[in-house]
Design goal:
Elements (H helix, E strand, L loop, with lengths): L3 E5 L28 E3 L7 H6 L2 H7 L6 E5 L12 H18 L3 E5 L20 H12 L3 E2 L1 H16 L21 H19 L16
Parallel strand pairs: 1-2, 1-3, 3-4, 4-5
Helix pairs in contact: 3-4
Length: 220
């Protein structure tokens, strides 16, 4: 069975699976799939630093024909002028797609998970500007599947509300002691990983051969 390779930042990266610290959704993706998961995501990564540190080269070198390469950046790119959404960020992602395809892999783009920031009126703030749109547009232009994690997490956090989100983000920022609203705890990572796993199943057509149940009340 084909492997799943993950390239991204801290919201994707491995972490402690005992609940003692922050962990990206990629750190628990293996719990929701029987496919091998190769996670090279790392905290602080941008589309540029991931290349400079050799992590992208290692990702592509490990790709076998038919493997999925799931790519999610943006949290840190937006801090760098040269990695503007429609500029360096978009161009780097386009190169990633080209290189994965050259290795006979299947690229999948992912929009950034939202930060869990509510304003005084209780509305969820928009924290990524044009970065999710850049990913969606690139997916359309290059015919690459996009998992819209930004839209999903915005729905999830709004549905849970600010207090409910505390279960997804239970840890504090070391520097200031305030609750970390960017990096998941174990429950948050699992909630997002379960969604990503279902999206990857759909993209691969893994459930397409099941017979439809049909009428209401018919036993499966």
């Amino acid at each position: 069975m084909n492997s799943i390779h993950l390239a991204g930042d801290s919201t994707v990266a491995p972490g402690p699976v005992d609940g003692t610290g922050v962990i990206g959704w990629g750190g628990v993706l293996h719990e929701f799939t029987t496919q091998a998961v190769r996670n090279r995501a790392v905290g602080g990564a941008t589309t540029a630093s991931f290349v400079a540190e050799g992590r992208w080269a290692g990702t592509v070198a490990a790709v076998e024909p038919g493997d999925l390469v799931v790519i999610q950046f943006g949290h840190n790119d937006q801090k760098e002028t040269e990695l503007a959404a429609a500029g360096g960020y978009r161009n780097n992602l386009a190169r990633f797609v080209e290189q994965v395809r050259a290795a006979d892999g299947r690229p999948v783009l992912v929009t950034s998970a939202e930060r869990c920031l509510f304003n005084d009126d209780g509305d969820l703030r928009v924290s990524h500007g044009g970065y999710p749109a850049a990913v969606r547009n690139l997916g359309d232009q290059l015919d690459v599947p996009v998992i819209d994690l930004n839209a999903f997490t915005r729905w999830l956090y709004t549905w849970l509300g600010e207090q409910g989100c505390a279960e997804l983000f239970p840890h504090a920022v070391p520097e200031g002691g305030k609750r970390d609203t960017t990096h998941f705890g174990l429950a948050g990572a699992r909630a997002v990983a379960g969604y990503v796993a279902q999206q990857l199943r759909a993209l691969q057509g893994l459930d397409d051969q099941h017979e439809p149940i049909g009428k209401w009340g018919v036993s499966p």
